[in-house]
Amino acid sequence: MAQKPVKHLCLLAILIATKVVTLAPRPLFTQPMTGISGTVVDQQSQKGLAEASVLVLGSNYGDATDAAGHYEIRNLPPGRYSIQVTIIGYEPQVRDNIVLRVGESHVLNFALATKPVELKEVVIQANAPWDKELTNASLAGVEQLRARDIKATPAAFDDVLRAIQVKIGVTSSGDYSGYYSVRGGNENQNLVIVDGAVIPNPYRFRAGFGSGFSDINPNTIENVRLYLGGYSAKYGGALSSILEVQSRIGNERRLALQGSINLVDLNGLVDGPLPGLKGSYLFSVRRTYYDWFANKFVGDDSSFPFFFELAGKVAFEAGPKNRFILSLKRSREGATIADDVSDQLNLSEGGKTSLASLTWRSRLSDKRRAETVVSYYNDQSDFEAFEVTEDGARVERQRLNSKAKHFSLQEDLQFKLAGHNWLNVGVQASFISAEVDYFTDDAEFLYARRDFPNNVNFDGSYSYYAAYLQHSARLSDRVHLSAGLRYDYSTLINSGNIAPRMNAWFGFNDATEFTAAWGIVYQYPDPLEINNRDPGVNLAINLQNLLAERATDYVFGAKRKITNSIHLNVNVYYKQLDRLLLPRDNETFFPLNNGIGLSRGVEIELERKSSGRERFTGFVSYAFANAKFREVTAEQWLPLKFDRRHSLKLFTEVKLLGSWRANFLWQVATGLPFTNITGARTLPYGGWVYIRGRHNGANFSTYSRLDARLSYNYDQGRRQFSFYLDFLNLTNRRNVFDIIWEQETVIQEEQYLRLAKKRTFFMLPFVPSFGLSFKL
Q1: CA atoms of 625 and 648, how far apart (whole Å)
Q2: Structure-derived torsion over alpha carbons of residues 55, 57, 58, 62, reported in degrees to the nearest 10
Q3: Do 184 and 644 contact (CB within 8 A), yes or no?
Q4: Is the dihedral of CA 43, 47, 52, 54 positive or negative?
Q5: How far from the centroid of its chain's Cα atoms is residue 593's Cα?
Q6: Residue 455 has what pLDDT?
Q7: Element at 758 (helix H, strand E)
C-alpha cells in the first residue's frame, strides 16, 4: 500500500524540480561573490569558543561559531570590510580594512581575551550559561547541530529528527519512520525538549504511517544539542539521550519574510519587532501540499497523509533584566487509505496537538539568574486498520485512540560562586492525564520487529516531580569538573529515586583533550508507550508493583586536533541496564522488572572542518556497538532491537563553481535484528499460534545507501535564496524495512492447514527530491 504514494511523490518531485530549475533567475548565477571564514578561540587556552557572534559591520552579513569555534560567511560582494567578533565574557575584537577580491576565500582567525561580565551590556540570551566554555567542555558525548547543518544533510527533508541520524552512535528505524535509536537503546528512551518544554510525541503521521517526520519546524531552529549520555542532573527520564532544541526569536530590527518548499510541505514565516515595545514576534505556518494534487486522482474514500501547523512566538523585555517569551502552536493531521475491492488493509488516521509555553528569564543580580518555564501540551491521536469483506462487512484489525494532557512547571536557578564555580538548582513538576484504548488482532498478522500487547486500556491522572543540584568548577585552564544530584518521583508507581552524576574535562595540551562521565539515569513507565517498546509490555496493568528502569553510564572521550581543520574524535561507552520491563508472556504482556541489559561500544570519527580554503569538507565515522538483554534468571543474552554491530558513515561537501555545492552521504551498516517466524501451529482446543524463533535472533541483510545533494546558495544581506536537488538512494538499494507474517489457510489431503505467509517491505527506492527557500 505504501508504494502508491511513493510513485505519486516521485513523479511530483521530478515535475516540480524540473520547473524550479527552468525558472531559476539567471542573474543569481553570474554575480561574482567571495567569502570569509576562520576560527574564534580563547587567547589563553586556544580552545574554540562556541556561539561567538561574527558580524560584517555596516551590513546584515554574519554568522555564529559552532562548537569548535568555526564560522563561515559566504557570498560577500567584493570590497573593503570591518569584521567584529563578540561573545559574553570576552573583550570584543574588530579587524579593519579587510579587502576581499573577486572569487577569493579569505581566512581570518580571532583570539579573544577574557573580561568580567558587565550586566549593563548583557542581553539575556536563550539558555546562555555563565561560562559557555565550561558548560560545553565538561560534557562528554554532546553532538551539536545548527539549522544550516540540518538543511545540508542529503535526503533528510530538512527534518531535525532525520538529520541527527547521521551523527555517530545514532541509528535510524528506516525510511518511513522518524524514530531513532541512540547507542542501541529503544526509541522510547529518547527525550525531546523544545525551548525548555518536554514534547512527549514529536512526530507526524504517527501510527499507520510510521511516525515519518518530526513536528519541529526547521525554519525556526536556532540550535540543536543531542546528549548521548553523561548529561547533567538537569535532565532525566530518558535512558539513552536528550535532544534539546532551541528555537529562535523574531527579528528585533526589521520586518522579515521567509518561505520554503520541499517534497513534504510548504513553510512560510514572518517576523519583526514589536511595535512600541522592545521585543519581537514570529509567526509560521506549514502544510503539506502534495495531497491537494494527489487527492484529485484517488477515490472518495481515500486521502493522502496531510498535516497543518500554525505557530507563533512573542518575546519582549520588561526592563533591563527580564525577558518574557510566549510560544503557541496548533497542528492537526490525518489520512484515509481505503480499498473496498481487494482484501488489503484499509487505514484511517487523525491527530491534533496544542502547545503553549511561557518562559521568564531574569537576572536577579550579578551572580544570580533565574528561568521559569510554564507549559501546556495537549495531544490526541486516532488510528484504525480494517478490512472490508466481499459482503461489505467491516472487520477491525487494529485500533489506537489516545489522549494526553501535560501541564508542567520548571524553575532553574543559577548562582555564580567564588572563583570559577557555578551552581544550578532546579525543580520540575508535571501533571499528566492520559487515556489509551489499543486493540490489535495479532492472530491475523505479526511484525518482525514489533511485538504489541493485544489490548491496552488506561484512563487516569498522575504527577511527576523532580529536583536537581549541579555544581561545576574550573579548577584550572586544563581541568574542569562537574557533579550533580537528581531526585525523581512518579505518583503513577508511587516510587522515587536519587540519581548522582559526575563529569570531567582535561585539556592535555592545546591540541588534545579528554572527557569522562559517570551517572545513573531513571526512566519511569508511561502507559502511552505501545508502538516503540521492545519487548512489548502492557503498562496499563500492575503499575503499583513496578519500578523505574535504570541505566548506569560510563563514557570516555578523546579529541585530537591533527591540524586546524582535521580533528579526530574517539568515544568509548559502557552502559549497564537493570530493572528492565519485560513481559511475563506473549499473551497478556504482563509487565515485570525482571530484565537486565548491557550496551557498549567504540565510536571513531575523523572530521575535516572548513577554514575557508578547503574544497572538500566532511567526516568519516565508524561505530562498533553491542546491545543485549536477558531475564535475570536466564543465561542466554538476546540482542536488543537496535543492536547494530558495525556502522560506517561518510559525509562530504564539495565546493563547486561559485555558490554551488555537492553533498554526499554514504552509509553501510549491519542489518537490524528481528524475530523470525518459522510457521504456525494448530492448538488442541481449535485455536492456533505462530511458531517463533529466538527473540531478535535473525538479522536483515546489510544496510547500504548513497544519498546526494546538489545545492545553490545566494546570500546578499537581507536577500537570501537557496535551492537543492536531492537524490535519495542513488544505487537503488533494496533495504529491508520490516517483515509482516499473515495467516494463510491451505488444503492438503483434504485437511485445512494454517501457514504463516511472509511479506517483506522495503525502504524507499531511488527517489529524487527538491527544496527551495528564500529570505527577504
Answers
A1: 12
A2: -10
A3: yes
A4: positive
A5: 29
A6: 87
A7: strand 751-762
Instruction: Determine if residue 84 is left, alpha or beta; phi over 0 gives left, psi from -120 to 50 gives alpha, anything else beta.
Output: beta
C-alpha cell at 546: 513496578
pLDDT value of residue 616:
87
Kindly provide the residue ranges of all beta strands, DSSP E only, lying in 475-548, ordered along the sequence.
479-490, 495-507, 512-523
SS3 sequence of 129-165: CCCHHHHHHCCCCEEEECHHHHHCCCCCCCCHHHHHH
**CA-closest candidate to residue 185, choices 242, 244, 245, 232:** 242
In this structure, the strands spanning 566-583 and 591-608 are antiparallel
Give the three-class secondary structure for 218: helix
pLDDT at res. 344: 62
In terms of DSSP H, where are the helices of 152-272? 160-163
* Helix (H), strand (E) at residue 373: strand 368-388
C-alpha closest to that of 428 among 412, 443, 451: 412
Taking the mean position of all CA atoms in its chain, how far away is CA 459? 29
pLDDT at 207: 66
- Let me know: does 83 contact 94? Beta carbons within 8 Å: yes
- Whether 188 and 522 have beta carbons less than 8 Å apart is answered as no
| 90: DSSP letter | B
Burial of 266 (0-12, 13-18, 19+ CB in 10 A): middle
Helix/strand/coil (H, E, C) string of 311-369? EEEEEEECCCCEEEEEEEEEEEEEEEECCCCCCCCEEEEEEEEEEEEEEEEEEEECCEE
Dig out the grid coordinates for 667 from the structure.
552509509
CA neighbours closer than 13 Å in the CB half-sphere of residue 43:
10
**Coil, helix or strand for 626?**
strand
In which element (H, E) is residue 707 found? strand 703-716
Task: Note the pLDDT of residue 500.
Answer: 97
**What separation in angstroms does the CA of 116 have from each of 51, 120, 225, 246, 472?**
18, 12, 27, 26, 18
* C-alpha distances in Å from residue 368, one per residue of 18, 424, 483: 56, 10, 19
Residue 715: alpha-carbon gap to chain centroid:
27
* AA letter at 17: A
- Rounded to whole angstroms, the Cα distance separating 771 from 116 reads 45
The grid coordinates of residue 764 equal 524507499
Averaged pLDDT, groups of 10, the chain, 776 residues long: 40 34 32 72 82 78 78 78 84 84 78 60 32 45 78 85 91 87 93 91 75 84 87 92 91 89 91 90 92 69 80 91 94 77 69 95 89 96 82 80 95 89 94 93 74 88 96 88 96 97 92 94 92 88 95 95 91 96 90 96 92 81 97 95 96 90 95 88 71 91 95 82 93 92 71 74 91 89
Check: CB of residue 607 under 8 Å from CB of residue 560: no
How far, in Å, CA of 770 to CA of 775, rounded? 18
Q: Which residue is it, cell 541489559?
A: 597
**pTM (predicted TM-score):** 0.82
